[in-house]
Amino acid sequence: MADPYFFGYGSLVNTTTHDFPDPRPATLSGWKRAWRHTDLRPVAFLTAVPDPEAEIEGMIAHVPDDDWAALDEREWAYDRVPVTTMVTHPVTHPVEIAVYAVPEGRHTVPSERYPILLSYLDVVVQGYLRVFGVEGADRFFATTDGWESPILDDRAEPRYPRHRRLTDEERAFIDDRLSRLPAKVVATG
Predict the structure, then answer these.
(1) pTM recorded for the entire structure
(2) Which of 21, 48, 177, 189 has the fewest beta carbons under 10 Å from its own?
């Protein structure tokens, strides 16, 4: 029987936000990453969107005790979609891999009312920097849609429940990359 693994492309890349076993870098083909808002959450989050021409880097990890319940709870606003044959990874034993994605028709572009949280973006990019280096973090920015969305600067009082402290270098990297994008960082008010 194949072991259940998930493919993470956002905060799950940052292994300090979870203790899922056997995390490994991987690539998912046929999907792109996008900032979206869903009526199930008060702010925007990342989702995977089918796109036959795209591929994104992320992490796979084993589902603890072969039980999806805890991960389904963490990712409750998403559907779990099988993607085993679309993932390139270094695991040599049989695995079944799923990705979490908000169903088409259940998400819209972020807005001032439903912005991207900078504390969430910080966690995601910190994970990409630590796993894939500067080049991989740059690929994260390049392969993610929705940068024209407003980003709420909540660093002083993070709203994202799994926020992490950034190093000065990580903060400078993120701020520099955001300055190159059409993203509009807005102060909390």
Answers:
(1) 0.92
(2) 189
